[in-house]
Amino acid sequence: MEGTALEKNIAVLNEKFEGEILHSAMLYDFPTITLKKDKIIEIIKYLKDHTDTKYHYLTTLCGIHYPELNQIAIMYQLHNMMSGERVRLKIYLPAENPQVPTLTSVHASANWMERETFDFFGVIFTGHPNLKRILNVEDMIVFPLRKEIPLEDQVRVDKNDTMFGR
């Protein structure tokens, strides 16, 4: 298959999932494709098995909070270790109830990445074999990487802001 990495990935996706692509671009020499969320697991499995892509390695799975959109993005980075090709896939979920099926049936390595994303962003990965906090304490009631959480305690009285140039 000829063309750029982005064009190739779009062509492969359109073979079976035409209409699922919302946006695509080359960002920092990295093909990035934003997709509708409903078929993300099928799409990743398809890209893993397709002879032109063979993305057998899940490099990254993480959350990104966009408070101005009231959404949480899930970003998946896939890698074909033989050819060195990579692709970044993104889906968007509503921040008030972020849910997406687990990827663990396709990539076992998604297990801990999904737990971390749950722990820090509150994303529920339905069907996950052991979705519980992985780094934070179990009784924590917030998701600390959401941008609505202040970076410091706003009511502290033991600090002097003038010492920090404020």
From TrEMBL:
Pfam families: Complex1_30kDa (PF00329). NDH-1 shuttles electrons from NADH, via FMN and iron-sulfur (Fe-S) centers, to quinones in the respiratory chain. The immediate electron acceptor for the enzyme in this species is believed to be a menaquinone. Couples the redox reaction to proton translocation (for every two electrons transferred, four hydrogen ions are translocated across the cytoplasmic membrane), and thus conserves the redox energy in a proton gradient. NDH-1 is composed of 14 different subunits. Subunits NuoB, C, D, E, F, and G constitute the peripheral sector of the complex. It is found in: Cell membrane. Its EC number is 7.1.1.-. HAMAP family: NDH1_NuoC (MF_01357). This is NADH-quinone oxidoreductase subunit C. It catalyses: a quinone + NADH + 5 H(+)(in) = a quinol + NAD(+) + 4 H(+)(out). Keywords: Cell membrane, Membrane, NAD, Quinone, Translocase, Transport. It comes from the Bacteria. It is a peripheral membrane protein. PROSITE patterns: COMPLEX1_30K. Its main location: membrane. Belongs to the complex I 30 kDa subunit family. The keyword Transmembrane helix does not apply. SUPFAM superfamilies: Nqo5-like. The gene is nuoC. The lineage of its organism: Bacteria, Pseudomonadati, Bacteroidota, Cytophagia, Cytophagales. InterPro entries: NADH_DH_suC, NADH_quin_OxRdtase_su_C/D-like, NADH_UbQ_OxRdtase_30kDa_su, NADH_UbQ_OxRdtase_CS. Residues 33-154 form the NADH:ubiquinone oxidoreductase 30kDa subunit domain.
